[in-house]
Structures are given as C-alpha cells and as structure tokens.
Amino acid sequence: MNSLLAVFLIAALGYFIGGIRIKGIELGTAGVLLVALVFGHFGVEIPSIIRNFGLALFVCSVGFIAGPKFFRDFKSNAASYILLGFLIILSGGICAVLVSMIGGIRPELSVGLLTGALTSTPGLAAAQEAAGELADLATTGYAIAYPFGVIGVVLFVQLVPRILKVDMAEERAHFEAAHTAKVKRYDGWLFKFDQGGFFAFMIAVVLGILLGNVHVPLPGGASFSLGTTGGPLIMGLLFGHFAHVGHLDLTVPVEELKTFRELGLMLFLIGAGVSGGAGFVETLRREGVILFVYGAIMTLIPMFVGFFVAKYVLKLRLLNNLGSITGGMTSTPALGTLISVAKTDDVASAYAATYPIALVAVVLCAQFIVILLG
Predict the structure, then answer these.
(1) CA separation (Å) from 20 to 27, 33, 336?
(2) What is the mean pLDDT of residues 216-241?
(3) Would you give the DSSP letter of residue 243?
(4) Beta bridge mates, 191
(5) DSSP 193
(6) Among candidates 63, 69, 339, 336, which has minimal Cα distance to 201?
(7) Which residue of 73, 239, 269, 361 could cross-link 349, Cys pair, CB 3.0 to 4.6 Å?
(8) Confidence grade of residue 182 (pLDDT, cut at 50, 70, 90)
(9) In sequence order, what DSSP letters do the residues of 297-314 get, joined into one string?
(10) Burial class for 286, CB neighbours closer than 10 Å (0-12, 13-18, 19+)
(11) 154-165, pLDDT tens digit by residue?
C-alpha cells in the first residue's frame, strides 16, 4: 500500500475507533495505535521519518505549553520526581529478574520484555549492546511487550480517575492553582519573524535534536542520550519559559501548539504502531503467549508501585501522580491521553521532570540485568 495513503487511512480509522465511548472510556488518539498495529501486522510499512517527525512535533509543543510553569513545579517536587523515576524502573527491573529466574527464560529476552513494557527504545539499544550475539532475543522481547506497554499506560491514566471517582474539575483547579506561574512582562520591543511562531518552533526543534544527539558515557560501556524525545522536549520547555532572547520573540500561539501537539502524537503513534505490529502475531505464536503475560506484568507492577508510593508516601495530588507515572514509564502516548483527560497541558511538567531520570535508569538497568544473569 502507498505509504501516504496508509498514513491518512490509519489516522481516519484510528480516530473513528478512538471516538467510540463505552461507559465513559474511550481510546482517543490511542485508537490510531491500535489500527496501526493491525496495518503493521498485514505488512504495511511507514518510513521511520514519520514517527520521528511526529515525536519531535509532539514533545516540543508540549514543552512550549508547559514551559512557563515547569521550573516552578520541578522546584517544589524535584525529590519526589527523581525518586519515582528510579523506583518505577527498579520495580520493573526486579520483575525482569524474577521472570528470568522463575520463568526460566534468557535474561536477554527478559530485558527485551522490560524495555518493551516501558516502551523505551534507548533501553532496547542498551539491552542489545549488552546481549551481544543474543541481541535478537532482546528485540523479540521488545516486540512482544511493546503493544501492551503503550495501551496499558494509556488505559491506566483514564481508568484511575474513574475508579477513584475523582472530580477532575476540582483536581484541575487545585493543580492549576498550585502551579500558577508569574509571567514576567517584557516592556521592551520584540521582533517576531512570523506571526505563527514557526521560526521559534523550528529553531527549538533543531536545537532539541542536536541536544538529543549528545551521548554521555555511562558505566559498562553504555551511553545515555536524550534522543528525539528528551532533546526537543527540554528545548521546548526552555523556549516556553523564557519566551524571548533579547529583543527576539520566541513565543508560539497556544492554538497552533495544540494543533502541533495532536498532529505530532498522531504521526508518532502511526509510525510506532506499524513498526510494533510487524511480525507481532508470528513472534507471539513462535515464542508463546506466556511472554506476553510476562511483558504485561512488567508494565502493570511498576505503574501500580509508582502510583501507590506517589499517593500514600509522597502525598502527590492525582495529576502530579499520573504525570510522573507517564514520565517514569517513558510513555509519550500516555502523556497525550493524560492531557486529554486532565484538560490541561500543565501535567506535562511532571512527565518532563521524571522522564530523563527514568531514561537513564532503564538504560543502566537493562545492562546490569544482562551482565548479572548472563
């Protein structure tokens, strides 16, 4: 099938399915992912540039919107976000070790399941490097666990508020009151290249991609980089926070940012879904359904551990809690869903604070497990 036709067809069918509401629950944009998985299973291919382009659009626009309040939020909850980032990955790592020991599967395969359950491509790369000649096992595990890794967190952030019977309007009001930022007025003249803010946005993405390509060495020969997710996200936060450099206006209209955000998430889910769906059923049939169950466990337990610690130990409010869960699980699709559920982009501040911590932790964890059990 023509790739361009496939992109638009997947998007149309995905939004149709995502808009179906059953007892108040709907998949929303995640419906695009389900359709993309099916198309991928039947051999449809989408160039990787579509996924990366969408990812950069999504995270950078989220950064711009959340930027004015991010640093205030991080300052007040930094210790909690750091702890949650490590704790979520640690609990997932413990699951991977137990699955390998009790289930009798190779650690390389178990770590692959873990990185898929956490939808972490950098984690998979670290696992493949540590696995050496058995790198294909890590790839297989990732492919099996990835679909539920995405859908599980997306459903979690929708179901928890309903199960707890939370008044979302009240939670949102409390959250926004706690994160009210004093916007500094700039009385000097400002030069704007274009009214749509395209120049500022594209420069933020360019700088973000460059930042994401910087590799920092880690113990054991691995390296850490922010990638296409972390780099543009951080640059978006910085541009959104400072709003101008000297007399140069760096703002982008909020409505355009929201359009970029939704378009980017859609394209990312199409690329990720088609890639994840390719060979999924065949791999599952060959390796056994039990591996899917193991992967689901590695998705569910870290989420629940993170949620209960955030709620009962760290005493975080619901939106801070769920935002940090999406960051700790490195789940970009779940962040998009949470923004829709919460009806405020400010929840991205918790995601942005927890995500880099979890990213470093999962890279180290993947290597450590293979070395420890290999």
Answers:
(1) 8, 14, 18
(2) 78
(3) -
(4) 248
(5) S
(6) 63
(7) 73
(8) low
(9) HHHHHHHHHHHHIIIIIS
(10) exposed
(11) 889 988 988 988
How many Cβ atoms are within 10 Å of 238's Cβ, its own excluded? 19
Q: Do residues 348 and 66 make contact, with C-beta atoms less than 8 angstroms apart?
A: yes
Instruction: Count each helix (H run) and each strand (E run) in the chain, helices first.
Output: 15, 4
How far apart CA 252 and CA 258 sit, in angstroms, is 10
Structure confidence at residue 144 (pLDDT): 84
Taken as a whole, the chain contains a residue count of 374
pLDDT at 219: 63
**Residue with tokens 């859908």, as numbered in its chain:** 151
Average pLDDT for 328-343: 85
Q: Tell me which DSSP letter residue 188 carries.
A: S
Question: Where would I find the H helices in 132-253?
Answer: 135-163, 168-178, 198-212, 227-242
Tell me which residue of 111, 145, 125 sits closest to 370, measured CA to CA: 111
For residues 32 and 61, what is the distance between their CA atoms, to the nearest angstrom? Answer: 20
pLDDT digits (tens, 9 = 90+) for 242-300: 888 888 888 899 889 989 988 988 898 888 778 767 766 776 777 678 888 999 999 99
What is the distance between the alpha carbons of residues 131 and 343, in angstroms, rounded to a whole number?
42
CA distances (Å), origin 219, targets 68, 86, 212, 371: 35, 17, 19, 12
Average pLDDT over residues 41-51: 87
Using CA atoms, how far apart are residues 350 and 314, in angstroms rounded to an integer? 14
SS3 state at 353: helix
